[in-house]
Amino acid sequence: MADVKKVYDFLEDAKTFYLATVEGDQPRVRPYGAMLYFEDKIYIMAFGKTNATRQIAANQKAEICAFKGRTLRIECKLVEDNRPEVGKALVDKMPVLKPALGENGENGVMYYLKDATANFFKMMELDETIKF
């Protein structure tokens, strides 16, 4: 799982990543920063009952993009995993979220990346591909 961790570490270093979802035939993009490496998976969190969570429920396909010296683009499916231990791990990692998320992240929705292809680019050239 070293390759998955490499992708996670890049996202962590970039601090902010952009999540693209679909609403009907319209793409929707928003900045995110809450992420977690847990049980060899990359997780992201969305606050519950938002447009993003409704869009992901209707269509799991998403793309994530981040930049830090080179560009990372990830095509993936987002799979909901709201086990309390996942939410708690995020709150423990990012305690600033606790007032909004609750003790175990119960006010957020945790998703892990599945069937992912992560492409790293230097300038406009594909530099590396990691599948997980």
Features:
Pnp Oxidase, Chain A, alpha+beta, eight-stranded antiparallel sheet
3D architecture notes:
The structure is a single chain. The relative contact order is 0.21. The mean pLDDT is 95. Strand 3 (35-38) and strand 4 (41-47) form a beta hairpin. 27% of the residues lie in helices and 48% in strands. It has 4 helices and 8 strands, in the order αββββαββααββ. It has one domain: Electron Transport, Fmn-binding Protein, Chain A (Pnp Oxidase, Chain A), CATH 2.30.110.10. The longest helix is centred in the first third of the chain and has 13 residues, at 2-14. Strands 1, 2, 3, 4, 5, 6, 7 and 8 form an 8-stranded antiparallel sheet that branches. With 132 residues, the protein is α+β, with helices and mostly antiparallel strands.
Give the structure's gist in a few sentences:
The protein has 132 residues and is α+β, with helices and mostly antiparallel strands.
Distance between the termini: 8 Å
> Beta fraction of the residues?
over 45%
Tally of separate helices: 4
CATH architectural arrangement: Roll
DSSP summary, beta strand count = 8
Low-confidence stretches: none
The chain-level structural class is alpha+beta
**The top level CATH class name:** Mainly Beta
Number of domains: 1
